[in-house]
Structure formats: structure tokens, C-alpha cells
């Protein structure tokens, strides 16, 4: 009987050892699969204000893009060309990024800085942008750095007073001129776009005769063929003439 008991015990131990080997093999395969998963599936740590920092109402992300002049830009290549600089959630975190960034006036031609709410890509086709548009101001060379700083500080400080309508802002450096724009979600909301326009005039201290142009992203998406996504290739008629610059 003892021999039988010992035999059963030995057999049971063998099964246990085999199960351990199987479990070890499964764990190894799981670890391997986890390592092989694309990085995009890994959750990023949420950006939050630090202790004693001043939180912003929304988190924002800085982006940078640059392209070769004269080369057609498809939607896919444009997205691949946008480089994310970083995301911040407080006033202090913003200044840590901004104080180390090159000013727009020192960028080379066909370069862009974008500042958008976290989760919104600086692309017309993004869900938050596709039904919206942007106010555009064309600048003489030498004005972009000051106007860009005033614009983004007003945006971070919620001076536009339009709730969640603001998506972000862009400064585009070109060879003969520079362009700044502020994007909103709903192009059809005339009251909101008018408030954004009036606030933009105030925070940038624009002269009364400054040319401002509003362009819907729908028109941009439907342009015949790829073009310069930062240039004003087609403008809505708001009683303005293309080519006039601020200052």
C-alpha cells in the first residue's frame, strides 16, 4: 500500500512539475509578446501640474514641422513630418519648454510651430478640426516672434472666452512673409468666430485696417491636389484682398 501511495505521490509530483514547466513556458511567451507589442499600445503617463504649480484649464502640446519648398505634401507625409515637442499642464511647465525653444523669427523658411490642446493633432482632418476653420493674419518679416508669443499667452490664459472652441494656434515661417493662425472647432458658429476675431485684434493690438482672413478646413481638405498646407492658396471672400500684410 505504501508503495502504491508513493507511486501515486510520485505521479502527482510529476504532473505538478509538468504544469510548472507549461506555466513557465506560457509566462515566457507572454513576456515575449509583451516586448514585441508596438510602443503605441503603451499608455503614456498623464501630464499633470507639479506641486505648487499653476494649472492650466487644458493641457497643451507643442509640435514642430518643416518641409522642402516646392515638394507636394500629401496628408500622410504631412502627418509623418510633424514632430511632437512635448506636453504641459501648468504655467511653469509651459515656460520650461518655451524658454528653450527657438523663436519663430529665427527659424528657417517653411518651418512651423504648432500649439494645440492635448489630443488634437495640428491637421485639418483631425476630428476636432474637420468642421472648423482658422483666422489667418499675414505678417511682414520681423513680427512673428512677438505676435506668436502674445497669441499663445492669450490662448493659454483663456482670454478668448469661447469655452472649448479653441483647438490651437500655428505660426508659419515663409521666405517673404510669416503667417499666424488660430484654429477653432465650429466654422459655422459665426458668433464664436467673430468673438475670436475681436479678441485676436485686441491681444495683438492690431491696427483697425489689419487684414484678417477666415478659412474653413473643409475648403482646405477639398483643395484640388496636394499643396502647401501652410500657404494661403485659396481664401474665403471676407471683403479683403490677398497679399496685404499686417504692418
Automatic annotation (TrEMBL):
Classify the source by domain of life. Answer: Eukaryota
InterPro entries assigned: TIF_eIF4e-like (IPR023398), TIF_eIF_4E (IPR001040), TIF_eIF_4E_CS (IPR019770)
Q: Which UniProt keywords apply?
A: Acetylation, Cytoplasm, Initiation factor, Isopeptide bond, Phosphoprotein, Protein biosynthesis, RNA-binding, RNA-mediated gene silencing, Translation regulation, Ubl conjugation
GO MF term set: mRNA cap binding; RNA 7-methylguanosine cap binding; translation initiation factor activity; ubiquitin protein ligase binding
Listed Basic and acidic residues bias regions: 1-38
Q: Which SUPFAM superfamilies match?
A: eIF4e-like
- Location of this chain's protein in the cell: Cytoplasm, P-body
A GO term from the CC aspect: eukaryotic translation initiation factor 4F complex
> What biological processes does GO assign it?
miRNA-mediated gene silencing by inhibition of translation; negative regulation of translational initiation; negative regulation of type I interferon-mediated signaling pathway; rescue of stalled ribosome; type I interferon-mediated signaling pathway
Output the Pfam families linked to this UniProt entry: IF4E
Residue ranges, annotated region (Disordered): 1-52
The entry describes its oligomerization and partners as: Interacts with EIF4EBP1, EIF4EBP2 and EIF4EBP3. Does not interact with eIF4G (EIF4G1, EIF4G2 or EIF4G3). Component of the 4EHP-GYF2 complex, at least composed of EIF4E2, GIGYF2 and ZNF598. Interacts with GIGYF2 (via the 4EHP-binding motif); the interaction is direct. Interacts with EIF4ENIF1/4E-T (via YXXXXLphi motif); increasing affinity for the 7-methylguanosine-containing mRNA cap.
Functional summary from the UniProt entry? Component of the 4EHP-GYF2 complex, a multiprotein complex that acts as a repressor of translation initiation. In association with GIGYF2, assists ribosome-associated quality control (RQC) by sequestering the mRNA cap, blocking ribosome initiation and decreasing the translational load on problematic messages. Part of a pathway that works in parallel to RQC-mediated degradation of the stalled nascent polypeptide.
Q: Which PANTHER family match?
A: EUKARYOTIC TRANSLATION INITIATION FACTOR 4E RELATED (PTHR11960), EUKARYOTIC TRANSLATION INITIATION FACTOR 4E TYPE 2 (PTHR11960:SF17)
Task: Give the protein family.
Answer: Belongs to the eukaryotic initiation factor 4E family.
**What is the name of the protein in this document?**
Eukaryotic translation initiation factor 4E type 2
Organism per entry: Coturnix japonica
